[in-house]
Write a structure and sequence with these properties.
It is built from seven helices and seven strands. By secondary structure, the chain is of the alpha/beta class. It has one domain: TIM Barrel (Alpha-Beta Barrel), CATH 3.20.20.140. It has a seven-stranded parallel sheet. The structure holds zinc ion (ZN) (2 copies). The site of one zinc ion has 4 residues, from loops. One zinc ion binds next to loops.
Length: 192
């Protein structure tokens, strides 16, 4: 099965993320093509020291959408200066500053996907309604996801992401099963 989209994928451009396997390259993902719309979202903090231009060029060359995963509000002011990004994936911990960081990212008018919120205890009551809420294939089953998401299924648009760090993680079976149980219809970005 080819998935409609996968916008949460890491590659060897997240060199400080020990879960990324050396085989998880942009070239491999290009070869596998597990989704119709593919976006790469490497960790922003590992890209800022001179890797970003190379990262951008490789992602574009493969025809993928260009994203980054922003680890909280400390990185927001810098992340919003990167005009060429297509979207943000954002770690939103349950703190005032982090919800303000989400607001700030939204002000760019780019899509903001809230990464694995159930694993970070993001309070969906406090999240700006324009944020896209992720059902994450890696983390969804780690908590009582049904109780966490169910009250909000009509309040937000939801996005399914693999959060792949290794070739064998390029899948969405677990997240899709949870989304189906929740009765969520996935929101598709970038579909013409
Ligand atoms: Zn994450
Ligand atoms: Zn991630």
């Amino acid at each position: 099965m080819i998935f409609p989209q996968d916008l949460h994928i890491h590659t060897t451009y997240s060199p400080g993320d020990s879960a990324v396997a050396m085989e998880q390259t942009i070239e491999l993902i290009e070869e596998v093509r597990h989704a119709w719309v593919i976006g790469i979202s490497d960790h922003f903090e590992f890209l800022v020291d001179g890797l970003f231009a190379e990262y951008e060029a490789k992602v574009r060359k493969a025809g993928f959408k260009l994203g980054v995963e922003v680890d909280g509000s400390d990185w927001v002011n810098e992340a919003i200066t990167y005009d060429n990004l297509d979207y943000f994936v954002y770690h939103c911990q349950d703190r005032d500053s982090e919800y303000r960081g989400a607001e700030k990212l939204l002000q760019t008018d780019k899509p903001v996907i809230i990464a694995h919120p159930n694993a970070l205890a993001t309070d969906l009551d406090r999240l700006p309604p324009d944020c896209l809420v992720e059902i994450n294939n890696r983390y969804v089953w780690r908590t009582d996801w049904y109780s966490y998401y169910k009250p909000y299924t009509d309040e937000f648009r939801f996005v399914i992401g693999s959060d792949a760090h290794q070739p064998n993680w390029l899948g969405q079976a677990v997240a899709r099963s949870a989304a189906a149980r929740l009765g969520i219809e996935e929101y598709l970005l970038f579909s013409e």
